[in-house]
Specification:
- By secondary structure, this protein is mostly helical.
- It has one domain.
- Helices cover about 35% and strands about 5% of the residues.
- The protein contains three helices and two strands.
- A two-stranded parallel ribbon has the order 1-2.
- Strand 1 (about 35), helix 3 (about 55-70) and strand 2 form a beta-alpha-beta unit.
- The protein is globular.
C-alpha cells in the first residue's frame, strides 16, 4: 500500500498508477507505450520521518497531479 493511494487496485483505478509491479509484461507496459510514462521512485521508509521532504512532496504534489492526469499517462 502506498500512502495516499490506498491499495494497488485503488491506485490503478483512481490514479492510473501501477504500484511496485515488476512482473512479466513490464517492457510492454512501460518501455513501448503509446502514452508518456512517468516513473516515480521514492524510499517509503522516509515518508514518516519528521524532517523528510518525501511526505510533503508525495502527498501535496505527486498524488493530486496523478489523479488529475489519470488516463493521459502511464504511471
Amino acid at each position: 500500500m502506498v500512502i495516499g493511494m490506498g491499495t494497488p487496485k485503488n491506485a490503478k483505478r483512481v490514479y492510473g498508477a501501477t504500484l511496485n509491479d515488476f512482473s512479466e509484461g513490464y517492457e510492454q507496459r512501460f518501455v513501448k507505450p503509446d502514452k508518456l510514462t512517468y516513473m516515480y521512485v521514492f524510499d517509503s521508509d522516509h515518508i514518516n520521518k519528521e524532517d523528510s521532504i518525501v511526505a510533503p512532496v508525495h502527498n501535496t504534489i505527486v498524488v493530486p497531479v496523478l489523479k488529475d492526469i489519470n488516463g493521459l499517462i502511464n504511471a
